[in-house]
TrEMBL record:
SUPFAM superfamilies: Thioesterase/thiol ester dehydrase-isomerase (SSF54637). It comes from Arthrobacter nitrophenolicus. One of its GO terms (molecular function) is acyl-CoA hydrolase activity. Residues 128-155 are annotated as: Disordered. This is Hotdog fold thioesterase. Signal peptide: none annotated. Residues 49-127 form the Thioesterase domain. InterPro entries: Acyl-CoA_thioesterase_PaaI, HotDog_dom_sf, PAAI_dom, Thioestr_dom. The keyword Hydrolase applies. Keywords: Hydrolase.
Length: 155
């Protein structure tokens, strides 16, 4: 499915997502099984070593995961279900620092029945250099997040 760059309202699951709002997450693009989001690291997102707290990077990746798992417009018969994490793994590869812009790129790798597998790459770049001129990636890879999803009834 073609990628859609958003200029209007964000994904419906963000309407009451106060954590993502607090983090300042911006949705860059969404399509079926894909999401790209961005945020800037603020002082209150740092750990005692002056680098991004692992929980902040995890929460950021988890938001991209949720957006990739849940369609903007559910198909008929899907409006009473949601897709949630059944398990995740994250590998922290490099530190990220205050003022850097994080970009998460989430992609579905597999889907079978009610289960799915997603890979989320998290990049960091200085605010004045958001994209690497040589590779076209949005900075240096700082974390790899793999999520396993499960579709369940909405309560």
């Amino acid at each position: 499915m073609a990628e859609t760059t958003l200029s209007g309202p964000p994904h419906p699951i963000l309407e009451n997502d106060y954590a993502s709002e607090w983090m300042g997450i911006e949705v860059l693009s969404l399509s079926d099984g894909h999401a790209t989001i961005r945020m800037t690291l603020r002082q209150e997102m740092l750990n005692g070593f002056g680098m991004a707290h692992g929980g902040m990077i995890f929460a950021f990746g988890d938001t991209a995961f949720a957006l990739a798992c849940n369609p903007i417009n559910p198909a008929p018969g899907e409006e009473n279900t949601i897709t949630v994490a059944s398990g995740v793994d994250i590998n922290f590869l490099k530190p990220a620092f205050r003022g850097q812009v994080l970009t998460a790129v989430a992609d579905r790798r597999s889907s079978a029945g009610r289960s799915g597998l997603y890979d989320i790459q998290i990049f960091a770049a200085d605010a004045d250099q958001p994209e690497s001129p040589t590779s076209g990636t949005p900075g240096e890879l700082v974390a790899e997040f793999r999520g396993r999803s499960r579709t369940i009834p909405k309560k």
